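Hey, can you fold this one?
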Amino acid sequence: MAIAAVIFDFGGVITSSPFEAFARYEAARGLPANFIRTVNATNADHNAWARLERSEISTAEFDAAFRAEALALGHDVPGGDVLPLLAGDVRPGMVAALKACRAAFKVGCITNNVKSEEDIGWGPSVHLILAEFHHVIESAQVGLRKPDPRIYLMMCEALGVAPAECVYLDDLGINCKPAAQLGMTAIKVTGEAQALADLAAATGLRF
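Sure. Predicted structure:
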């Protein structure tokens, strides 16, 4: 089936991965490598991170809940320290690719995020990029988060396309898996150059 839509994750795809910021934070505070990711991966569907991204708790409640989970794993990390690490740096090549895809296909964005943009450092430049998408689904607004298959189907319905007509990009394999199972061409993003090459191969566009 021909490609009709390209669906992007935001953090780690359009912007640099928050994992890079996590690593800098961990190194600066003498924490074990990947400690924040370990906290986020523990009880992954019901922990503080998951509940915040579904807007089930406030950022203030997240601060305490994440800290408790981190302490249970041996280190003191307040949730309020983690949220500002999410913003990342915009990848100009990915923004250019988004605009090229928009000219040829429908484009959507599915992002696991939080309601308070101030907590994660989203500024005007991010909103300009989000305006390029035909449709944006934010987990904090709809009460669903990736990798729940329903959020991908919600995007397909909004864009008026079948999953098999979609290319999907995400920096997390756990989020790419349901997209692929639904029939999408899933691209796991490990860096900008790799993402652009794989997206070009999937779409036939040149970036």
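The beta strands are 5-8, 106-111, 135-138, 166-170, 185-188. Let me know if you want another pass with a different chain boundary.
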